[in-house]
Design a protein that fits this description.
Length: about 160
């Protein structure tokens, strides 16, 4: 049964629901992939979370963190969290379909840099959702690292049964 948000006590957090996490078992430095390709965890799984199907509308929170570096001059490397609705790229109930991060690196002595991204989508009930972690630029002189401490892709639902 759904509940009006205004009817909930203000001192009680919204309940969370389904959670998922992708963490590699081990790994190594990997060349930054061309645009529209997964940033893979190196565990044999794709760089995605899902499927998420809930009986009521909900907020889906998705995030990723990686470390990366470039070995020549200034480089730009972009990536995004892309929403997939019923097996095709699609929008949430607010018309949003991706969150994108633009990064640059000027080869600071081969240092590894941390980067993270988060997304929030308002999703429809009884609909299948996935989220892809995708490269959005081709940066052949850049790398990311597949390792349990340096690559994380996660998601959880919140606000289920609340409208």
């Amino acid at each position: 049964m759904t509940t009006n948000l205004g009817a909930l006590p203000s001192n009680v957090p919204l309940k969370t629901g389904v959670s998922q996490k992708r963490i590699p078992a081990a790994g190594a430095a990997v060349v930054w992939p061309p645009a529209e390709n997964y940033l893979l965890p190196g565990s044999g799984e794709p760089g995605e979370v899902g499927p998420i199907i809930r009986p009521h509308r909900f907020w889906w929170c998705v995030g990723a963190s990686i470390i990366n570096h470039c070995n020549t001059g200034w480089q730009r490397y972009d990536y995004q969290l892309r929403l997939v609705v019923n097996s095709v790229y699609g929008n949430d109930l607010n018309g949003i379909n991706y969150f994108q991060k633009a990064n640059s690196n000027e080869n600071h002595g081969g240092s590894w840099l941390m980067s993270s991204i988060e997304a929030r989508w308002y999703c429809e009930a009884n609909t299948t959702y996935h989220c892809y972690l995708l490269s959005k630029s081709s940066s052949p002189n850049c790398y990311y690292y597949q390792h349990p401490e340096h690559y994380t892709l996660w998601s959880y639902t919140v606000g289920e049964d609340v409208y």
